[in-house]
Amino acid sequence: MHMSQIPQAPEVRPAPLGSIRTGLGDGCIAHFHPELYQLVLRRDGYEEKVELGFSGSRLLERLMREPGEVVARDELLSHAWSDRVVGQGSLNQQIYTLRQVLGDEKRREIIQTLPRRGYMLNPQYASRTPPPKAEPTQAPEPPKAISLDEILPPARRQRPLDWIAMATPLLLIVLTLAAALHLFSQQPRLAREETSVGNKHFIYLDADHDRLRQLRERTAELSVRLGALSTAAMNFTLSRHAGFYEIACSDADGATRLLVVHQDRLAALDIGQLRSCLP
């Protein structure tokens, strides 16, 4: 998770979805911007921007949709990881990370756990930003009378260059498609390395070759532990984004589970958490 502290200054930023009174002290308030995947912590004239990542932002967005509403674990899993299948361990890790950011990991009063029901965002700490008031609309003007000559102009009224005006929209479409293809071709490709140990296959992904080498070095011990979890053939895909490691575990039938862990807790993963990644 990446944090940066800067003096508070005017900045072009969309309105927050809502605000959360944190447990960090000094009157710290967290403003949630789901479209930026960010929490902005404000206190004493300073800001800290916290990158939540896609899944963490989707999880908090669902909880903030209606503070005080109990949201089932299965609904949070399908909302935050709509494009993949993950285990309960991924949800537990994201809830723990959000509590850390909000200074709530010990008291657990902001994000509350309701046994056998799910999680709830405490409305005493969280509030949504009210939607902007609608501007009053003016009554439409009555339709203007149109003469028959305006509807049916003489045939000779057409000018020789009218075909240019007709062709202009088509030309704009062609240019737009060409620009889109050019931008797509310029997108950076992920650097990739693969290795196999017995019937275990490991894939390492990163946008930068230097960071890819660091990813392999920092997850070397983790790869050994993953390979020892099962005697069956397995594929493991490891990547790192916004301070979190993502490990996708797939079996021979293609079933996949995802484990997400903060970079500071990588070495603290126990065997139970690792086994939750196995399909």
Unreliable segments (pLDDT under 50, ≥5 consecutive)? none
Share of β-strand residues: 25-35%
Can you tell me the CATH superfamily of the largest domain? Winged helix-like DNA-binding domain superfamily/Winged helix DNA-binding domain
Count all strands and give the number. 14
Protein model, in words:
A hairpin with a 2-residue loop joins strand 12 (234-241) and strand 13. The chain folds into two domains: 3-128, Orthogonal Bundle (Arc Repressor Mutant, subunit A); 191-275, no CATH class. The protein is globular. The chain contains eight helices and 14 strands. The protein has a six-stranded antiparallel β-sheet with strand order 1-5-4-3-2-9, with helices on one face. The protein has a five-stranded mixed β-sheet with strand order 10-11-12-13-14. Helix 1 crosses helix 2 and helix 1 packs across helix 3. The chain is of the alpha+beta class. Helices cover 30% and strands 27% of the residues. GO terms for molecular function: DNA binding. Residues 121-151 are annotated as: Disordered. Residues 129-143 have a biased composition (Pro residues). Keywords: DNA-binding, Membrane, Transmembrane, Transmembrane helix. The chain crosses the membrane at residues 163-184.
Task: Detail the topology: elements first, then pairings.
Elements: E1 3-7, E2 18-21, E3 29-33, E4 38-43, E5 46-51, H1 53-64, E6 70-71, H2 73-80, H3 88-101, E7 111-114, E8 118-121, E9 126-128, H4 148-151, H5 162-185, E10 191-197, E11 200-206, H6 209-218, H7 220-227, E12 234-241, E13 244-251, E14 256-262, H8 271-275
Parallel strand pairs: 11-12
Antiparallel strand pairs: 1-5, 2-3, 2-9, 3-4, 4-5, 6-8, 7-8, 10-11, 12-13, 13-14
Helix pairs in contact: 1-2, 1-3
